[in-house]
Amino acid sequence: MTTSIIRAACPHDCPDTCALLVTVKDGVATEVRGDPDHPSTAGVLCTKVSRYTERTYHKDRLLYPQKRVGGKGDGKFVRISWDEALDTIAAELGTIAAQDPQAILPYSYAGTMGLVQGESMAMRFFNRIGASLLDRTICASAGGAGYKYTVGTRMGTDLEQFQNAKLILIWGGNPIASNLHLWMRVQEAKRHGAKLIAIDPYRSLTAEKCHQHIALLPGTDAALALGMMHVLIAENLLDHDYIAQHTFGFEQLKERALEWPPERVAEVCGIDAQQVIQLARDYGEAALAGNGAAIRINYGLQRVRGGGMAVRNIACLPALVGAWRNAAGGVQLSVSDSFPKNLQALQRPDLLLRHGVPSRTINMSTIGDDLLRETSADFGSKIAAVIVYNANPVAVAPESRSVAQGFAREDLFTVVLEHFQTDTADYADILLPATTQLEHLDAHSAYGHLYMLANNPAITPLGESKPNTEIFRLLAARMGFDEDCFKESDDAIAAQAFDRRNERAINFDWASLKLKGWQKLNVPDAPFANGGFATPSGKCEFFSALMQADGLDPLPTYIPPYESVASNPTLAAKYPLAMISPPARNFLNSSFVNVQSLRDTEGEPHLDMHPTDAAHRGILTGGSVRIFNDRGTFNAKVRITEKARPGLVVGLSIWWKKFATDGKNVNELTSQRLTDMGRAPTFYDVLVEVEALP
After folding, report:
1. Which of 140, 302, 371, 692 is the most buried (most CB within 10 A)?
2. b/e per residue 468-486 (b: at least 16 CB within 10 A)
3. Is-above-0.90 flag for pTM?
4. Which of 16, 204, 110, 47 is nearest to 595 (CA)?
5. Confidence tier at 357 by pLDDT (50, 70, 90)
6. Which of 284, 136, 146 is nearest to 221 (CA)?
7. Is the Cα torsion angle 397, 401, 403, 407 positive or negative in sign?
């Protein structure tokens, strides 16, 4: 028996991007472990990825190309050859492109975060054909926009510094479920005396283990940050030197913040004024004492109408108290811009220039509406073909009923590259088997730590599955695209992943990275200790002229949710419960839902509801309930618990529809309205009502 250990990387949409060691015996992957030498992974994997072999060798893996033989959505297919599949796709796309190539739409997101299997050969193909561009907004673009207006770039506190902090605010996240390796360092900080405060409408697993939990109403985080600013300014808990040297617009900010006394904030957020005051004091006093005062923002809080502004407001706080001076202070939303990714070489946007006209852009978060649009002067050509890869929009995109209606169009040609027959795959005309991370090569950046990683293929592809890159290579050849970039190997693409002209990646060498598995960027421990913000002023911008030019309030403010008493009292009277749908611990977006052992742990779709709200409706724990609003309905088992604050219900997600008793999930109720900035979805800006089922 031949045994080998292969260095790999986790590909999923998680900030941890773990370094993996895959044990292979006689060509079969038998175990996936965390690399104990990788500083951020430290030998530990989450429950999901530790069972990766169960996913790779799943009995339902797609192993051969197939074509649809039933109705769209019925999920009925027959096996075909790769030649037939490729010829069919090339013929359909060629016919459409001859009329208007922008009627072709790629739809992808972070089913893999790899720089090779994600958007390299695929983007080259779509740029060359002249397809519509996809605005990939579904997860993080609102918060990213707010953060960049303020700080200038998505950089922040290094994961490897959090254990040195003395105060940690976990704002809008549940790292036990979705950022495990941060949580390990937070726990280390706690053992050394750090105070942990969770700010979250829901008492998550993480909030239960913090010293304090502030359960504000969904969508009110921006107001809480304004209240903190008020107290910091009123009580002079400020680093005046840092403000003078490294910020812009303090006097205007001061005037705005003083409009938000703790009493006003408490009323908006549904909390006590004393909580606002003490939170600000804890934060300001820790930073001014020279201790690490760190904030971990996660993306949950930006999935509301004012989500971008909420992140912006929070991002202002470290500069007020000089928290950036300490490597264990500051804030982390994402560190993804630390990586000098060579996107020009990877994706070849220059291939679009041959078409002479700019491609239109379709927002992935409004795919439900856009698939149903007819040809018009404003919209352009009706979408005639969608190629889905690294995504499952029928389960994940908002206002799911519209999404399903769009994919059910008989005149829409749909190709899906997948590992399994997902909810979206059921609507495919051609279904193509893609390789998993254990079967292909890739290069990875991260958004929660500062290491470049290599993923070496551990096993040969199962069945007739192919990497995304090879599928688009073959399609390019069928379409007659003869540019040299379509002949590049995955190794050649990966070798271009990072720009070595940038000092942060000056030591990048693909051959060495494959051997070692990972390498840290060349970055300072405290990125903004001496200012150096990537804004137009070079400072942390409390006042943003860019925002003003974009038609936004240039100062921090509060924007109430679309669906709230403040914005729509009539709707709030009809649907008095706010609903959020954070990730279930054993799923990752919609990945892993079909892994039996993980789904068994989750049980079935359920809704957490406060005892007061349940009693008012005559609902008993364990009973079946219908959750509904004007957009749709879905059913779940109810859990009556004080984890959900009064007025809030929580549906942990994202379930495939086919695994629910009613064939629906929480996105039946979400809307396609977009955030204040970043054009992102408002998944947590939802009002509903709940009733018991017989």
Report:
1. 302
2. bbbbbbbbbebbebeeebb
3. yes
4. 47
5. confident
6. 146
7. positive
